[in-house]
Amino acid sequence: MSAYDDLMAFQQTTEALGQVAGRLGWDQETMMPREAAPQRAEEMAAMESVLHARRTDARVGSWLNEIDDTTLDEVGQAQMRLIRRSYTRTIKVPADLAAEIAKVTSRAQGQWAQARADEDVAAFLPVLEEVVGLKRQEGQALANGGDVYDAMVDDYEPDMTALDLGAMFDAMRPRLVALRAAVLEAEAPQAVSGEFPPDKQMKLTRKLAKTFGYDMSKGRVDKAVHPFSSGSGHDVRITTRTSDDDPFNCFYSTIHEVGHGCYEQNIDDAYLLTPMGCGVSMGVHESQSRIYENQLGRSRAFTGWLFNEMTEVFGDFGIPDAEAFYGTVNRVHDGYIRTEADEVQYNLHIMLRFDLERALMAGDLAADDLEAAWNDRFLADFGYAVDKPSNGCLQDVHWSVGLFGYFPTYSLGNVYAGCLNEALRKSVPNLDGQLALGDTEAATGWLKDNLQQFGGLRNPRDTILHASDLEPSPEPLLAYLEEKFSQLYGL
User: Fold this and answer.
1) Can you tell me the distance from the alpha carbon of 356 to that of 368, in angstroms, rounded to the nearest whole number?
2) Quick check: pTM over 0.85?
3) Which of 127, 145, 264, 321 is least surrounded, with the fewest CB atoms within 10 Å of its CB?
């Protein structure tokens, strides 16, 4: 066998073990008995030790040195790019540090969930301080004298920097704030109210998953404290959550996670259990979840279909017709929870987290001061005070599991989705007619053909450029938001 064949055979086993580790994480958040948490932390640490050893194996370095990338085709060169990147990053992180991070973040996730349920920030702060300290060490090792936060962002969005993200946010913030101000001065659509039994929500949410192309023979839908997607290829799991008085929490969390899940399910099978066999970055991943959730799922056409479905399941739930329902679904409203935020304000929630986690990683903000810093910033940005920790700094799972640098990719995904939506609408001019029938196949098929099937073939920016023929820019997203909400609110 050639060095390339040897490397790819070795890599396949590493990728398979990575999937097993991911399944342990999925189980922890969905089905694991509560008292199993300490044992699971040890299991996760053991698995991370095995994976770290494989990813830094000296043979990988030897094979990479032996392979001449110019002799490979486009797919082979992409595989080498991804393996080199992983190897170069992983060898910078000591094995004992990687294992300790896996162990502590597994334990921290459970402690966060309990602290959130108990509205007890103090119970979470000691383990958060541990996580922050460990992740800062990891970031310093990866940065090798450079910016620690840049090194962490690069883990989720290759070649992206805090400077670039800050410039993007600076371009977006004034227009978002101006749009929010104008909308909040107008008459608001009716809010949803009433009781929506969780079993009926789950029945409809599974139908929504299938409507957007999620293959239940290769996936499943479960409930978790915080919705997420896990896995790739032929085993992709998604979760959602229910609220008795807010069915949109369930339905749009599901559609969002289905966007992630379909991306993974639709990657070419030829790339299964290779570095190319998963989404190329979290920004691109979020572009799929956000376009499914918002530009498709919250469109006037699709909400007309969803109104009829909800009426069939729940009976008369107080919204008189499909047009009023479209306003209800897209209602701009005060709220604390990022995942429940309307499209106008969502990115403002991300900007808050971006600044706070940069300060945590730089050592400018101590974990003990996080709650006060969050509450002060939220009041300044949104104009009302956080009422309880689960609506404030305890609402998201990300920091408990060490995902520093992840949050800005949500907004980056919105920016990418704006570009993709503009291209999709040009390519499928009768899209709304299909969505009004609950038929998403043209839209999801276009995304599969132009983006999802390629997995990690191209870098993130080129992935969006190839699919949309547009250089990534906030302009399409901002234009979409201004047009949509100006029409909806009569501005």
Assistant:
1) 13
2) yes
3) 145
| 102 assigned to some structural domain | yes
Rounded CA separation 33/17 (Å): 23
Q: What is the pLDDT of residue 226?
A: 81
How distant, in Å, are the alpha carbons of 23, 218, 233, 260 from that of 236?
10, 6, 7, 9
Of the three residues 112, 146, 180, the one that is the final residue of a domain is 146
The yes-or-no answer on residue 483 being catalytic is no
Read off the DSSP letter of residue 94: -
- Print the domain residue range for 140: 3-146
413 close to 135: Cβ distance less than 8 angstroms: no
Q: From the annotation, which residues make up the binding site?
A: 256, 260, 286
In tens, the pLDDT along 134-175 reads: 999 999 999 989 999 999 999 999 999 999 999 999 999 999
Please enumerate in sequence order all residues whose Cβ is within 8 A of that of 352, keeping only pairs 6 or more positions apart, or say none: 374, 377, 378, 381
Domain presence at residue 248: yes
> For the CA atoms of the chain, what is the radius of gyration?
22
235-240 and 219-223 beta bridge pairing: parallel
- CB-based contacts of 184: which residues, under 8 Å, 6+ apart? 332
One domain, residues 360 and 482: yes
pLDDT at 1 (0 to 100): 64
Q: What is the pLDDT of residue 225?
A: 84
Which distant-in-sequence residues (6+ apart) come within 8 Å of 349 by Cβ? 338, 341
Could you tell me the two tokens for 23? Answer: 């399944």
pLDDT of amino acid 34? 87
Beta strands in 157-316 (DSSP E): 219-223, 229-232, 235-240
Q: How far apart are the first and last CA of the chain?
A: 66
Cα separation of 112 and 128, whole Å?
9
Cβ–Cβ under 8 Å, residues 72 and 4: yes
Residues 386 and 413 in one domain: yes
Q: In the chain, how many domains are there?
A: 2
How far apart (Å, rounded) are the C-alpha atoms in residues 229 and 132? 24
Strands 229-232 and 219-223: unpaired
Which residues of the chain have a pLDDT value below 50? none
Helix and strand numbers (H, E) in the chain are: 20, 3
Distance CA 201, CA 218 (A): 22
* Residues recorded for the chain: 491
Q: Which residues are annotated as a binding site for Zn(2+)?
A: 256, 260, 286
63 and 203 co-located in one domain: no
Is 251 in contact with 298 (CB distance < 8 Å)? no
Query: Do the beta carbons of residue 61 and residue 87 sit within 8 Å?
Result: yes
Domain boundary among 120, 146, 172: 146
Reading phi first (left if > 0) and then psi (alpha if -120 to 50, else beta), residue 194 is in left
Q: How far apart (Å, rounded) are the C-alpha atoms in residues 178 and 417? A: 21
